[in-house]
């Protein structure tokens, strides 16, 4: 009895010390502030080191950011961008010094922003110099299948990116269209559908691609079924209704990958805008035979083409309805390239606003589109020129860093794979914020100010607080 009483007292003291430590673990700690700000030279710059103090009662007259470490949510898979044919071709034309600068800027955690996620295409997309596939036209049996095309530019760049990232890149792939002979319109361009008689051949094509890339020493984490399956584009595109995508997944793609020993690949459905993601997820995930093959839902940010506001709430609605499935942002870029707007600040702010909202609604991975384009916003074989976070002037050989690069870096550099989102809220809508605890125990809180005014705010975490200033049109990452 005496030993039992001693055990109870000891456990009580351990619990008390644990609770006390949790409530005051930041009181004596430091917080480092990294800032990117318009009309200044601050670009992911370490601007302050501050100390926490014991927290007082927050006031309604203050602007506050609240972090609750006792509430954890999704675990981060990675943040990154796409290496397309366009990116690889532009990269190949750079000097060796500028090539290494570009790789370090994206994939080195110390010298750059530490990307950990990479998307690439299954044969051509609009950001290719021309349309192409890996088989000769009409070869339904895929006997001519070869990825020789990709070995010239794309595969070498992916390998160098992976090496720079010290082998930590999560690689996934997406098709824009089946070969022309497999489609109802006889073309890789302008929509059309996959002919029913070629569904098995097309499923075999994915398996061959994955095996060919993995034979090159590039492990494939997963794939999306079809890029933008409801868009009839002037470039490579293919239409699937929700039911058609569901049935292709459960009857052909899923079983084929399993049969080919690729059942561990993560399959992402939808891969299109937030506007219809609730419907697409419902149709596929409520079918048990289809859902068992699906890792989660991918989505883009282009629903604003209709003039509507971004539909961030749809991301959360999918998460609420299907909590066992994951959410991945698979593509976004600034459309309509204009070289006069390289340093247009709202482009960076668009990234910050989108990423914060997507993360706060349960997204586990966030993927930008092309990591590199030329001074014309290409190459692109249908004139669909866009912005990238970094452009290369192929005449001067210089790299041009846009605000988008730095805004992305405030997330990718500090919120690492295996980080868990924790509870976070703001007391005024003049600020946006999200918070994560990394696998090594460090905390990262991102705070964004889109207003024209410098804002003083107080960060509250557990029983500690610290007061900071964030300049107008700025983003900060707080590390503590």
TrEMBL record:
SUPFAM superfamilies reported for this sequence: (Trans)glycosidases
Q: Which UniProt keywords apply?
A: Glycosidase, Hydrolase, Signal
| GO process terms (BP) | glucosylceramide catabolic process
Q: Which GO terms describe its molecular function?
A: glucosylceramidase activity
Which residue intervals define the domain Glycosyl hydrolase family 30 TIM-barrel in the entry? 77-415
Please name the InterPro entries in this protein's record.
GH, GH30_C, Glyco_hydro_30, Glyco_hydro_30_TIM-barrel, Glyco_hydro_b
Query: One Pfam family from the UniProt entry?
Result: Glyco_hydro_30
Q: Where is the signal peptide?
A: 1-23
> One GO CC annotation, please?
membrane
Which ranges carry the Glycosyl hydrolase family 30 beta sandwich domain? 419-478
Protein family (similarity comment) = Belongs to the glycosyl hydrolase 30 family.
Name of this protein: Glucosylceramidase
């Amino acid at each position: 009895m005496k030993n039992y009483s001693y055990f109870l007292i000891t456990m009580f003291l351990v619990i008390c010390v644990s609770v006390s430590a949790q409530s005051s673990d930041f009181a004596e700690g430091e917080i480092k502030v990294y800032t990117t700000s318009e009309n200044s030279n601050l670009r992911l710059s370490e601007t302050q080191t501050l100390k926490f103090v014991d927290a007082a009662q927050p006031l309604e007259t203050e602007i506050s950011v609240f972090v609750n470490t006792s509430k954890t949510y999704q675990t981060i898979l990675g943040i990154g961008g796409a290496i397309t044919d366009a990116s690889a071709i532009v990269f190949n034309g750079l000097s060796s010094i500028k090539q290494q600068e570009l790789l370090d800027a994206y994939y080195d955690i110390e010298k750059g922003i530490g990307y950990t996620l990479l998307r690439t295409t299954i044969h051509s997309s609009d950001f290719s110099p021309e349309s192409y596939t890996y088989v000769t036209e009409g070869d339904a049996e895929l006997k001519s299948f070869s990825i020789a095309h990709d070995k010239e530019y794309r595969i070498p760049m992916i390998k160098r990116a992976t090496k720079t990232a010290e082998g930590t890149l999560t690689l996934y792939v997406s098709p824009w269209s089946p070969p022309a002979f497999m489609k109802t319109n006889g073309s890789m361009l302008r929509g059309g559908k996959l002919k029913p008689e070629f569904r098995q051949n097309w499923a075999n094509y994915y398996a061959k691609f994955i095996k060919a890339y993995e034979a090159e020493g590039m492990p494939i984490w997963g794939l999306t079924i079809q890029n933008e399956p409801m868009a009839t584009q002037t470039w490579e595109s293919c239409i699937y209704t929700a039911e058609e995508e569901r049935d292709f997944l459960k009857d052909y793609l899923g079983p084929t990958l399993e049969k080919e020993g690729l059942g561990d690949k993560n399959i992402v459905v939808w891969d299109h805008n937030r506007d219809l993601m609730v419907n697409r997820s419902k149709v596929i995930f409520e079918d048990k035979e289809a859902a068992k093959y699906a890792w989660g839902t991918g989505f883009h940010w282009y629903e604003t083409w209709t003039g509507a506001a971004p539909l961030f709430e749809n991301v959360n609605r999918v998460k609420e309805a299907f909590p066992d499935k994951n959410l991945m942002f698979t593509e976004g870029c600034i459309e309509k390239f204009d070289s006069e707007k390289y340093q247009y600040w709202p482009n960076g702010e668009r990234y910050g606003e989108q990423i914060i909202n997507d993360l706060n609604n349960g997204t586990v991975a966030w993927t930008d589109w092309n990591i590199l384009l030329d001074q014309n916003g290409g190459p692109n074989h249908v004139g669909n020129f866009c912005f990238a976070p970094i452009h290369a002037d192929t005449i001067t050989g210089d790299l041009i860093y846009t605000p988008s690069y730095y805004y992305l870096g405030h997330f990718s550099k500090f919120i690492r794979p295996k980080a868990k989102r924790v509870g976070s809220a703001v007391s005024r809508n003049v600020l946006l914020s999200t918070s994560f605890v990394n696998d090594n125990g460090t905390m990262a809180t991102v705070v964004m100010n889109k207003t024209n005014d410098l804002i003083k705010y107080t960060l509250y975490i557990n029983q500690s607080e610290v007061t900071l200033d964030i300049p107008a049109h700025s983003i900060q990452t707080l590390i503590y």
